[in-house]
Amino acid sequence: DKLSTCSLNPTNVVFEIPEEVAINNLKHTMLFTKAMQSLGCRIALEHYAATTQPQLLKHIQTDYLKVDGALISNLGSTNESRTAVRAIIDRARKYNLKCVAEHVDSAGSLALLWELGADFAQGNFIQEPSKEIDYDFFGEIETHEIPQSPVYTNASQNETV
Fold first, then answer.
1. Nearest 5°: phi and psi at 104?
2. In terms of C-beta distances under 8 Å and separation of at least 24 residues, what long-range contacts does 74-79 make, across chains too?
3. At 149, is the pLDDT very low, low, confident or very high (cuts 50, 70, 90)?
4. In what order do the strands lie in the sheet with 120-121?
5. Fewer CB near the last or first residue (10 Å), C or N of the chain?
6. How far apart (Å, rounded) are the C-alpha atoms in residues 1 and 26?
7. SS3 115
8. Separation CA 104–CA 20 (nearest Å)
């Protein structure tokens, strides 16, 4: 009713469910996700890998996996975190899900996530929280020069891409 009343496109609504809540309330989580997705809303499984339950994805239909922030915080300092994040991104690909990294607080973490194949990133490095939605995206676009796309040549076939 609220989606209709507020004229919201349900595909723009994403419900985040913490992994621990999903595990402890599996039946209710399954019912809730099916009901919301039948309306067109999307589901994100948040803090994923906090308890490392890969079989959870077989039971809950989700659209996004949000990598646990503790793994992202240690991404640049431990091989274990990088290995775990790579495994989560690979698991997301296996289930055809988008992967979101939360708590991205440094350029180094963002670069590593890009290298590992994360789809989205959020955190203080991207934009610190604010009470107002007042970020000037156009100012950012105008003040930064956008690099030209590189031209690649396939030497074996003499074609330019």
1. -80, 110
2. 75/108, 75/109, 75/112, 75/113, 76/106, 76/108, 76/109, 76/112
3. very low
4. 14-18, 42-48, 64-67, 98-101, 120-121
5. N
6. 25
7. helix
8. 21
How far is Cα 14 from Cα 29, in angstroms, rounded to an integer? 14
Give which of 110, 124, 17, 126 is closest to 61, Cα–Cα: 17
Radius of gyration of the chain (CA): 19
* Whole-prediction pTM: 0.75
Q: What single letter denotes the amino acid at residue 22?
A: A
Token duo for residue 35: 């009901």
Q: pLDDT tens digits, residue range 52-81?
A: 677 888 889 999 999 999 899 888 888 888
d(CA 43, CA 101): 15
Quick: pLDDT tens for 130-146.
787 776 666 655 544 54
Do 26 and 51 contact (CB within 8 A), yes or no?
A: no
DSSP label at 123?
A: S
Q: 13 with 42: CB under 8 angstroms?
A: yes
Higher-confidence residue of 103 and 149: namely 103
- Provide the 3-class DSSP secondary structure of residue 59: helix
